[in-house]
Write a structure and sequence with these properties.
This protein is about 25% helix and about 30% strand. It is α+β, with helices and mostly antiparallel strands.
């Protein structure tokens, strides 16, 4: 078999990342996300990725029962709107939804829609944080879909969500499910009372761990973050300064493109999917795994 040519037309996936600042009106946020999909499609994107919980401000900064009113079913209004735009523009879309599964059960859910607007797959966030200003355990039931990859835009797309991006197990299992591209809809930023050194260290750790997932699994990583300051309800002087800087890394961990830290942006990036095969041949991490020796990974801690 001949060695794959670099960046051939058949192996190129053009990915669009829609980095937004979110306001109080879910309808306006949805319209701006749809406009971002339009812009990415106009620039030739075949897969467009939206940030975590893009229809609203990041409501998990506090625990408030009224916020459950933001939830909706899947399929539902948001997935229907995304599906119509996907089909109209012939692009696949990864969208993030506050899913109401049934009374009292809610999920932080990523939905993959293919180019026809069909739901190709649903992933429910597995790792749920409970930290200051990130009180997600109050709102979200841990996911039960497992880790999977879905066919979209001529690629195998593996959706994960925000806190999942810190866990190598999630990236590995999604890659083992066949993913060529890991997509992380994200909402992460700096808190108001931390130093510049801490801010820089946190961002660097966030990007580095995801670049490591790209390397150790031989995949592309797409991280789509929100941007702008969102105050804690009732206290305008606090809150989260979302650091934006959405990026795409290739299977060598190289950052192919990175959005700004302080502005909305639609980033469109070419990903040569043939690089997945070439990298895994040269760095056969999946081949050399000692699957006979990893049983203790299923334990909370090895005493």
């Amino acid at each position: 078999m001949p060695y794959p040519a670099a960046m051939s037309a058949s192996s190129t996936l053009r990915v669009g990342l829609v980095q937004m600042a979110c306001g109080d009106d879910p309808r306006q946020n949805l319209e701006r996300a749809l406009a971002g999909i339009e812009r990415a499609a106009a620039d030739g994107a075949g897969l467009v990725c939206l940030q975590e919980l893009f229809r609203s401000r990041y409501f998990c900064q506090s625990e408030d029962n009224e916020r459950f009113e933001l939830a909706e079913p899947v399929p539902g209004p948001t997935t229907e709107a995304l599906a119509k735009r996907a089909a109209a523009r012939g692009v696949a879309v990864v969208g993030s939804v506050f899913e109401k599964r049934t009374e009292g059960i809610y999920h932080n859910t990523a939905v993959v829609l293919d180019e026809s607007g069909r739901i190709a797959g649903v992933y429910r966030k597995m790792h749920i944080p409970d930290d200051p200003l990130y009180y997600e355990k109050f709102y979200f039931t841990p996911g039960d879909t497992g880790f999977a990859a879905f066919a979209a835009a001529g690629a195998r797309v593996g959706p994960l969500v925000c806190w999942d991006q810190w866990f190598p197990e999630a990236a590995r299992l999604t890659a083992l499910a066949g993913a060529q591209v890991l997509v992380y809809p994200t909402a992460i930023g700096w808190q108001h009372d931390e130093s510049d050194d801490v801010d820089a260290a946190q961002h660097e750790a966030w990007e580095t761990v995801q670049r490591a997932h790209a390397i150790s699994n031989g995949v592309f990583v797409v991280a789509v973050n929100r941007v702008g300051h969102e105050p804690t309800p009732g206290d305008a002087g606090t809150g989260i300064r979302f650091w934006g800087q959405s990026f795409v890394a290739d299977p060598f961990g190289r950052v192919l493109a990175r959005a700004s830290a302080d502005a909305e942006e639609v980033l469109v990036v070419d990903c040569d999917l043939a690089l997945v095969e070439r990298t895994r041949r040269d760095w056969p991490f999946l081949r050399d795994r000692r699957i006979d020796a990893y049983g203790d990974l299923t334990k909370r801690f090895r005493d």
